[in-house]
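tmp note - FecR protein domain-containing protein
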Amino acid sequence: MNSPKSDKELDEWLELLSSSTHSPQGKFSAEKSYNILQQRLQPAYRKHKILSIRYTVAVAAGFVLLIGFGWMFYFYQRPVRTLIVSTNIQTQCIQLPDGSKVTLNRHSQLSYPETFNKERIVKLNGEAYFEVSKNPKKPFRVKANGVTIRVLGTHFNVNAYASDSLVETTLLEGSVSVSNNANGKQMILKPNETAIYRKSTGILSMHINANAQNEISWREGVLSFNDISMGEIARQLSHHFNVTIQIKSEQLRNYKLNARFKQNETLEEILEMLAPIVGFTYHMPQSNLIELKQEN
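out:
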């Protein structure tokens, strides 16, 4: 006997079955039996439907979580674009992604990531003044030609030109640690202290800087020197005007003086003022080279 394919065929099939069967409960009702069959089948159908919905929701939730974890992994592992800021004859103020502020001196370069993830690391070639936003969970590091300065939140100045023989870190406020990248030696600075790293010897030393504010006078457009040697003045003027100033006389190089110049003064004007006071002459064998000689 073929299986019924419709309600009508089911009724006919049940009637045929009842006519060939002696029911102990009397006449067999196809309609009543069909209703009973439906009632028994419906709970199973509803249960299957509920299970199907729960399965669909679980799969969707798992898919959403997978996307979320994937996005987080991509966000933290993706290559971060590096931004590079270079200055020429002007200083420049920069705000970093964490809100820290950097004032970049003339002829300097700062590189930093577009966003800070687990660490806050910047690289400096030249001179810059840092005002670092506090974040104990993310220490701030400056890598500068052989040294690393580590801070939590503070104000300090770093002088680290690639052409110089030394790197200077002067603390104005807060606390910083300065470490030698070659041997790991580290020192902690307090306000008005300067760490000096000498590239030729790899020695890291510290001295008290009674005139620490002079280290950042360049931010106000002033070059200020207090009891500074001509050798150091020549070094700073070299960076300021992007030239090379050479002093061949050891005595002239060690001569100390106090001086103060405005940034809008030309190098020639500054040398003309210093020459009669210190006692030297100067000439330019090349356009970017100036030689100072002590007068006899």
